[in-house]
Amino acid sequence: MANTKHGLPQTRGFFKxxxxxxxxxxxxxxxxxxxxxxxxxxxxxxxxxxxxxSTIYVNAEGFKNDKVYLFKQSEVKGQKGEQKxxxxxxxxxxxxxxxxxxxxxxxxxxxxxxxxxxxxxxxYDAASKIKEQLEDEQPIFVRGDxxxxxxxxxxxxxxxxxxxxxxxxxxxKAIDFEVDxxxxxxxxxxxxxxxxxxxSDEQGETKFIVEAKVITYNSIEDAxxxxxxxxxxxxxxxxxxxxxxxxxxxxxxxxxxxxxxxxEITSFWGxxxxxxxxxxxxxxxxxxxxxxxxxxxxxxxxxxxIEEGLKKLRSEGQVDSGSWGEGDVExxxxxxxx
Length: 338
Prior knowledge:
Elements: E1 13-22, E2 30-34, E3 40-51, E4 54-64, E5 67-72, E6 82-87, E7 100-101, E8 104-110, E9 116-121, H1 123-133, E10 139-152, E11 158-171, E12 185-202, E13 205-215, E14 220-227, H2 230-239, E15 244-265, E16 273-297, H3 303-315
Parallel strand pairs: 8-11
Antiparallel strand pairs: 1-3, 1-10, 1-12, 2-3, 3-4, 5-6, 5-7, 8-9, 10-11, 12-13, 12-15, 13-14, 15-16
């Protein structure tokens, strides 16, 4: 049985971005919170501009705890490594012995020869280190985990979030969005539990909405993905049944949808004039461009298994009638055939 609150294996998701760092000096970009228990949490939220009109915000975040787990890889292939539990203050004292914390790999500094200096920091420390070392418009490459969550707002409505949590951030070569042949890097890969697919015609644009579930450590979340490729959508509809899992991948679509509105006003200093007011809204979609049929799992996430998992969460007070688990408010390959 999986080591999770509900007994189901997690369906993990990952992302990779290449672009220019932005939004570093926004108000509340860095947040620190102390807890009565003596613990603390740091969060640094910054943007990665992956194309002229696309900026994706990511988080470097973590908790400060009394104890830290360090790991040392075995020198013998196939053999388990060693684990050491140390006090927080000694979390980096055993690096020379080969014991490293599991955390975020940061490579934003360079030595005198211009080579990247890469160090691994605990998630909590990484938030402040990245804030300290990163500069606006610095070209970077970022990898990390996609985290899905949900919460209830003040009106009792369930709101669902997806958060991009940094696990690797490195200097990148120079980026020129205007160069011929520029290709945006804003990709994701996710194991999903397929629930259905439906056609949606919005503003004359045909797309298909994939309803899915994703399994986190302590929740079962509803999630939505998009398919624009009609033949791929048809393959989903023909080959998949609800509660079957598979690996999908595609592009993170995150752009501004601007609507220009003409508005007439009367001026006391002359004739009637007009001006344009631009209403901006953000469109964020995880667009599926491909899937791997060899990963189709028809048994692990059956309807009965999902219901049993929800039952366990309800018994622990993790789920109520209006929500699929506890949530956290968000801060801030080429198309492949089957």
